[in-house]
What we know:
Blueprint: E1 4-6, E2 13-15, H1 39-95, E3 113-120, E4 124-131, E5 136-141, E6 148-151, E7 160-161
Amino acid sequence: MEDTKYCADCGEQLNIKAEICPKCGVRQIKKKKKGGLSIAIIAVVVVLGGFMVLGILSAIAIPQFSAYRIKGYNSAAQSDLRNAKTSVEAYFADNNKYPASLDQTAFKSSVGVNVSYEKSGNRQYVIFSEHSKGSKQYQTSSEDQGIFQRDKSDSNGQFQSI
């Protein structure tokens, strides 16, 4: 029964509330109540919670990272288009005619960027660019000051001003 206890030293039966044995005078040690969570359970809960947080952050960050990569590829194609136009115009300033191909200029495209140049007579050209991993195609010409774009998936669509 829980209502009785015995002295740890002399074995005398004691009142449940007694702190000192009346026979031998030894102070009785109270047993600590067992309970609470073990460190192992707490560690498991913390680790699993950490994995859940990482999973949630990954679900948010990975699609965003992919969108940033595509933006970077598109920016490389735009930059190469501007550089190609600058090289063609510099050639024109030196020779009073546009080059037959981009190989006659100092222009070199970035890795993954495809730049195509089409000359029409001595005074007109059109330049197209796109990155192999990008989502846009870009265009400019001798008659345009700006750059125009369209989605790669819409190859028959109109180029729109940026």
